[in-house]
Amino acid sequence: MVIGRKKILVLVFLFSVIVLIFQFREIEIAQAETPTPTPTPSTDNSQAVRDLQNQINDLQNKVSELAKQGKTLSSQIAVMDSQIKLTQLRINSTKQQIIDITLDIDTTNKKISTLQNSLVKLTGVLINRIIATYEVGTVQPFHILLSANNVSNFFSRLNYLKIAQEHDKRLIYDTTQAKNDYANQKTIFEDKKKKVETLKTQLEGYTSQLNQEKKDKNDLLRVTKNSESEYQRRLADALREIRQIQKAATVLISTEPRKVARGEIIGYMGNTGYSFGSHLHFGAYNIKSLSEYNYYSNHENPSNTLESVNVGWDTGCNGDPVGKTNTGSGSFSWPMSTGNLYITQGYGNTCYSNVYYRGNPHPAYDMYNNSDIAVRSVEEGQAYICRNCTGDGGNGVFIFHPNGKMTLYWHLQ
Description:
Elements: H1 2-30, H2 47-67, H3 73-136, H4 141-147, H5 151-224, H6 228-252, E1 258-260, E2 265-268, E3 280-285, E4 299-300, E5 309-313, E6 323-327, E7 342-345, H7 353-356, E8 365-368, E9 374-376, E10 381-387, E11 395-400, E12 406-410
Parallel strand pairs: 5-7
Antiparallel strand pairs: 1-10, 2-9, 3-4, 3-8, 3-12, 5-6, 7-8, 10-11, 11-12
């Protein structure tokens, strides 16, 4: 009887030890470090890309310095040559980046394939371990104690369970880590694919820009006949045109306007007042009196005021439409018949304004129609008409409309 009580006490003591061990084990698992995702690596540009970028930076500084020099044909050609080289370098840099990232994509794709295989294997092992753990999960420590032949056998079995639990914990961690790595590599893969598409679009833009820059240079040489005197004459004429229109507005302030109707003929297309050829210079301004007029202030795109019509475009400038194009979103009629109308210079920064207007925008449309040269008022209003009002041969009309806009018509016969 005494022996039986001792045995029971030993069993109770051992059971208490087992309970404490499992309690400490649960605390240890709870305090285990939570798996963290693998950080997304950043890909540095290759040495080739960095070298090209250094050349781009140097050339940009050179272009800026050249632009500060006096306006001569040789300096303008030097700027154009440098800009062409700069765009070519940007094309080379973009191509190199595409090559580098394409190689990265191939590497990332291989990593994804490897991680996917590892993840499949780990998941399979983990599922099997979960099933095995579930099957023995109903076995209590006390049952292990009762089924043990002796104390040594009991601790061997208990130690086996601890090893199995530690293995399960590591397996879960490895599986989670593999999932995180796989997700990160997939994100890297998608980001690089988007980057390549962006670079390809950028490359198309640079290629188009390069073609236009070469064309601009050829046009400049053709128009000026590679003559410094011809270039200076055209520069001077462009500046005289601006001063002439500005002076006309000042002179006409003291005159009485006359009322004109929408579509009324106010003159005919010509080449008076420092024009490079017969055409109409048509501008739209948000002003209410001639005293407010300034060539480079308060102007807006004529397309905003003119009604939507298919007209021809033949500017030769990169980014402008070519051929018949729907143009206009306003309510005013067009100043010339649109049947055979062609716009030869658009609004804003154009390939011509960059050369002849010192980088200032062209605040108008230049257009011509050789089959119908009549110029008409786009809307009713009060017209101030200049017939050589500045004494240097310039003819044009300023019309103020009821909606607070002013339209300008210049180079009339």
